[in-house]
Amino acid sequence: MTHTLIDAARELAPSFGARAQEWDKTRSYCWQNIDDLVSAGIMGMSIPGEYGGRGASFLDVVSVVEEIARSCALTARVVVEGNLGGISAVMAYGSAAQKAFCAPLVLAGDKPAICITEPDAGSAASQMQTTARKKGGKYILNGTKHWITGGGVSKLHLVFARVMNEAGIEQGIGGFILFADPRSGDCLAGFEVVRREHTLGLCGMPEAELRFDNVEVDKKWLLEPPSGLKHGFADLMSAYNSQRVGAGAVALGIAAGAHEHAKRYLLDRKQFGRPLAEFQGLQWMLADMDTQIHAARLLLRDAAQSRGPDGSAFPDMTKAARAKLFASEMAIKVVNDALQMFGARGYGDQEPLERMYRDVRMFTIGGGTAQVLRTQIAGSILGIKTPQSRDGYMRLSDTTPVAAE
Ligand SMILES: Cc1cc2nc3c(=O)[nH]c(=O)nc-3n(C[C@H](O)[C@H](O)[C@H](O)COP(=O)(O)OP(=O)(O)OC[C@H]3O[C@@H](n4cnc5c(N)ncnc54)[C@H](O)[C@@H]3O)c2cc1C
Question: What is the Cα–Cα distance from 188 to 283, expressed in whole angstroms?
């Protein structure tokens, strides 16, 4: 099964590569590629067979993501969010009704948006201010989320909020499944996409600010993790570990693609009467790039196959942090070196290197910055939960964070 999907990804890669520049220049979402992903069974491949997917493992997904990211990082990000992150949280923790609602949408091409970050709660995600207050059989959502990938194109949204009971007493952090259909203009969920960011890279992917102003959500759409709301944030963030590994795989794929372009160019381009490939200074750069790519791939595979403690359905937090940290920093360096090997040609847009250089930059920021990941890894080495870790839980009324037990 894995082979079929990886083969399909390899077959699609040339057409994705051919269209990548167009999505970048026109800043448009890759709808055409999504139709291909749906036909190939790649969207929702991780969804269990009983809900119409293929039950592919996280390792299968990251292998497919790497293949696609070699030619189009934008499309690879869609595959990440169409299999990991939000949808994997729903499939692991959701009610039968939630799963039955979400799975067909993803299998038909929807890339769910995961809505955690707020203007005043980035790395300190547990300081989020968005609230969901119970009112009869409903919750009323208020707050703002920003830098939401897919805001304005995604139908499914997993919105993290502080859950309050009817008396306004906080119960913990939960996720709410909200549906909207931005293409038809039918915003059933009642929230607003306030603005779209102008980004350095991955320009076809909308990064948007969403506003929730007294948005009513039926209580059946509350995604309550198994350990309950009090520990809900830690559980929801553990689902995010799969997305982190996926993000690392996109960075890895960009690096591997850039390395392949550089290799071909060194064999082709002549200076001083010889192919560039004969110059030792460039050979050693290529060898270092290759070694780093292989190391990142091993870390990512190790993370993808791992599971957190207590029978978690998701990759181990430290392994995921380590793999994403290494892959993202490695990829920025490798793409930079590949561009260097092309000389002026790499700086212009007749080669894909300048796009890859811009695309790869985000991976030390989105989905946990390099600094936050280092803090998590250090906390694990030292055996402590640091206040800065994203699985720490902080009540709005607290001035000091409370680690999730
Ligand atoms: C392209 C892109 C896509 C994204 N997609 C999503 C999405 O789909 N959903 C979502 O919810 N969010 C998303 N984000 C938001 C992302 O998760 C945040 O940007 C990230 O968590 C960092 O938050 P911040 O930008 O507010 O930076 P800040 O938290 O303000 O940090 C600023 C700088 O300070 C450093 N820093 C902060 N705290 C510490 C500390 N304790 N020790 C050392 N250094 C520290 C950071 O590493 C960073 O370098 C996305 C971001 C980007 C760029």
Answer: 56
Amino acid at position 405, single letter: E
Is the Cβ–Cβ distance between 1 and 64 less than 8 Å? no
Q: Where does a domain end: 188, 205, 224?
A: 224
Asked whether the beta carbons of 101 and 86 are under 8 A apart, the reply is no
Q: Atom of ligand 1 at shortest distance to CA of 119?
A: 26
The response to whether residue 366 sits with its C-beta less than 6 Å from ligand 1 reads: yes
Assign residue 215 the CATH number of its domain: 2.40.110.10
For position 405, what pLDDT does the model report? 39
Residues 49 and 124 in one domain: no
Other Cβ atoms closer than 10 A to 402:
13
Residues 155 and 276 in one domain: no
pTM of the model: 0.95
Task: For residues 343 and 243, state if they share a domain.
Answer: yes
pLDDT, one tens digit per residue, over 338-367 is: 999 999 999 999 999 999 999 999 999 998
CATH of the domain at 16: 1.10.540.10
pLDDT of residue 280: 98
Q: Give the range of the structural domain holding residue 173, as residue numbers without chain letter.
A: 113-224
Atom 29 in ligand 1: which residue has the minimum CA distance? 123
Looking at 206, 224, 242, the residue that finishes a domain is 224
* Residue 86: count of CB within 10 angstroms of its CB: 29
pLDDT at 115: 97
* pLDDT tens digits, one per residue of 119-164: 999 999 989 999 999 999 999 999 999 999 999 999 999 999 999 9
Q: Give the single-character DSSP code of 180.
A: -
- How many Cα atoms sit within 13 Å of 97 on the Cβ side? 7
**pLDDT value at residue 399:** 47
Binding site membership of 120 for ligand 1 (Cβ less than 6 Å): no
Amino acid identity for residue 190 in this structure = G
Q: Which two tokens stand for residue 249?
A: 């795989």
Which residues of the chain fall below pLDDT 50? 390-391, 399-400, 402-405
What tokens appear for 149 in the block? 């990938």
360 lines ligand 1 (CB under 6 A): no
375 and 247 together in one domain: yes
